[in-house]
Amino acid sequence: MGNLQIIILLIYLAILLSPIIYTSFAFMSLAKKTGTEKPWLAFIPIAKIYLVSKIAQMSSWPMLLLLIIVPSFFLIYFPWAAPLTLVALISGLIFFIFTLIWEWKVFERVGCPGWWVLTFFIPIVGPIVYFVLLGIAAWGKNKKDICKEINHDS
Predict the structure, then answer these.
(1) What ranges do the domains of the chain cover?
(2) What single string gives the DSSP state of each residue in the chain?
């Protein structure tokens, strides 16, 4: 493998991992702000989802849907598994809705508007706006003051 290919691979990995690392630090900070136990769970992929449910003070039972969703990725190539794939698709949609609700509640718990989580769906700039708002919620100067200032300015 040539030097250029290694450089391109490293850039690709940095671009791929940077949102994961950023959100891990943000949710760890939100966990500390809200007094949620074990904020370090933000750095473990599946545990981060559990931590978000705990920050939101909601049940983490919907995580059991992952037991249906994850294995279905391995069965997608088998024709006999088509019904399971449909069940996994429905389970994935339900789980996605729960994660949106959890994140909505996390924003509200630190005094920010819950609808900030929906900014992720704005085409092109949505993820950037979401990451900025997540950072404001996580590292704002006070638990609730910064979000209230932003809301009154608009």
Answers:
(1) 1-55
(2) --HHHHHHHHHHHHHHHHHHHHHHHHHHHHHHHHT-S-GGGGGSHHHHHHHHHHHTT---GGGGGHHHHHHHHHHTT-GGGHHHHHHHHHHHHHHHHHHHHHHHHHHHHTTS-GGGGGGGGSTTTHHHHHHHHHHHHHH-SSTTHHHHHHHHH-
